[in-house]
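Q: Okay, next protein. This is TRAF-type zinc finger domain-containing protein 1 from Trogon melanurus. I've checked the sequence twice, so it should be correct. Can you predict the 3D structure?
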Amino acid sequence: KKDIPAANFIIHEIHCSRNIEVCRYCGESVPKSGMKNHIEAEHVQVTCKCRMKMENSLLRDHEASACPLRPALCQYCDIQLTFDKLHDHEIYCGARTEACGACGRNVMVKDLKEHPRVCG
């Protein structure tokens, strides 16, 4: 994937054809001696805890940003839940009320940040 001077091209081409192989899954150039390890590390099918199957190389990103069972924190009480349960929990949790220390009124937790503007 680099520019090769014309004078070195034939030697380069011979070297590459002997030592480098293109991965049939991702098109990456990999040393022939490391192809088995590359395929096992990157392209073996694994199953996430959510039962979705994918290549091993995609698992970390899936677990961090797409898995419905990834950890998530409630914005109101900081309890850790799985992402698939977060929405329903936050609806319930945000509807709880707490007394305002300034005016004494009961205010829904989801409105506590905005309450000081209208307090009193």
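A: Here is a summary of the prediction. Strands lie at 20-22, 29-31, 45-47, 53-55, 71-73, 80-82, 97-99, 106-108. Residues 74-117 form one domain.
Q: Noted. On to the next one.
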